[in-house]
Amino acid sequence: MPHTDFTDADLLAYVDEQLPADQSSAIEAALRNSAEMRQRVTLLVRRRDQGGHSVGEIWRRNRLSCPSRSDLGSFLLGACDPDYEDYIEFHLQTIGCRICQANLEDLRSSQQDAPDRQRRRRRYFESSAGVLRSQRPS
Fold first, then answer.
1. Three state DSSP letters for the chain
2. Same structural domain, 21 and 54
3. Predicted confidence (pLDDT) at residue 64 exceeds the cutoff of 90
């Protein structure tokens, strides 16, 4: 994809890390090869940071379309309303929100680590129970 095919919105989404990995890779490759494109991105960021506050910009920067972390946890457990589950699936797969994908992956890994954490807590408690009993005043 030639660097002129990227829209301003694409480039700003790249800067904010809100593009799927394949689109981000294409823009990154184009940026490496084009001083003109790097200058274009610099100007876009400068213009945006000087107070260009459109509704779309506010929506994207504050990630108003993203489900909350607790909603992603409910999605992972299969405890969401079916319509909202469809939306989250769309957001993750079709939109390709990398932030939400990373949150979901973090929740998955913490869910897998939960049994180990519970065993460690029980061992800590059991190992300190005797110490606590011996420190109680008689």
1. CCHHHCCHHHHHHHHCCCCCHHHHHHHHHHHHHCHHHHHHHHHHHHHHHCCCCCHHHHHHHCCCCCCCHHHHHHHHHCCCCHHHHHHHHHHHHHHCCHHHHHHHHHHHHHHHHHHHHHHHHHHHHHHHHHHHHHCCCC
2. yes
3. no
